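@channel sequence for tomorrow's demo:
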Amino acid sequence: MSTHEKIANWLDNGRYADFPNSWDDKMFRTFILDRLTPETHLLDLGAGAGIVVEMNFRDHAARVCGVDPDPRVVDNPYLHEGREGFGESIPYEDESFEVVISDNVFEHLDNPAEVITEIRRVLKPGGRLVAKTPNFWHYVALGASITPHSFHRWFNAGRGRDAEDTFPTRYRANTRRDLTKLAKDTNMSLVSCEMIEGRPEYLRRWWPAYLLGAAYERIVNSTKLLEPFRCVLIAEFQKPG
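structure tokens (generated this afternoon):
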């Protein structure tokens, strides 16, 4: 067994035994399930081709729809209906959904205020938008913001993601301050904004980096004061009424 395998197994089975693969999406799934009923009409904004199995809610809601610029969305197996479109012009009627979800989409938005305004339009009064996105002040997002898209595609290919599923990043709605302002500008309430640091996924390919990532995780989880530097941001907005 190589040094990398020994150290990776030691961390995976020790400190991160409670963090399976795709732990952030599994956590987000639980967050969403707590807000669904069998009568819920749900919209997955940025549903794509259906590559994230944790975003399959067909058996937990009355109707699951999806919107994405990727034409593969119409064949997404996790949806009752998929439509090709953009967040700035969602192809659904006013007040169509009780819940809108967005998994790793906010970091790609050119005009987040326009998108949230559109989400507000298709939400029923009192409806919820729940979104997971990287926190800009984490090293992963900071690194991504200063590297070219070609590097992102190469890096994600090493993690098993197809190049066509790696999209340009903008990071215009990726801090608590950004989201607070967006809520105010779009007449939405920011109900909660949680920041979570778990197993350092992007550093697990090299054992020295994995050790550094584990040390970083321990530090930012040691005190509430360092919460703004944690990796995953889960935000919940509510439409008035």
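heads up for whoever presents: The first helix runs from residue 3 to 13.
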